[in-house]
Amino acid sequence: MSKYFKPSEFKACVPSCSIGQMDAGFLETLDRIRETAGIPLVLNCAYRSREWDLAKGRTGNSSHTRGLAVDIRCGSNANRYKIVKAALACGITRIGIGRTFVHIDADRSLTQERIWHYYD
Description:
32% of the residues lie in helices and 18% in strands. It has four helices and five strands, in the order H-H-E-H-E-H-E-E-E. It is an alpha+beta fold. It has one domain: Muramoyl-pentapeptide Carboxypeptidase, domain 2. The radius of gyration is 13 Å and the shape is globular. It has a five-stranded mixed sheet with strand order 1-2-4-3-5, with helices on one face.
């Protein structure tokens, strides 16, 4: 299903999930981002169920709940730049920047051409 990502990487996410819960087209995009960035992409979070999202006080309508988003671990500004640059080059237009991760999603049902931060 994926050139670079193994099922075990999705099991290690919080919450644990399965590669099969991810949108197949989005997985192809993740592979292209990984190839373009030229660095490993370690996933912190991928698919989340609506129930899990709601239990955490979220809306339950996240791109994660449709298998269209991931949070990629990022510990340096250089890697953050590589990930964002590669995501944009691969057609991703929704990016969130956290202190230790980059959120990317391909959810066309949400507003496009947005970059936000999680620093508050």
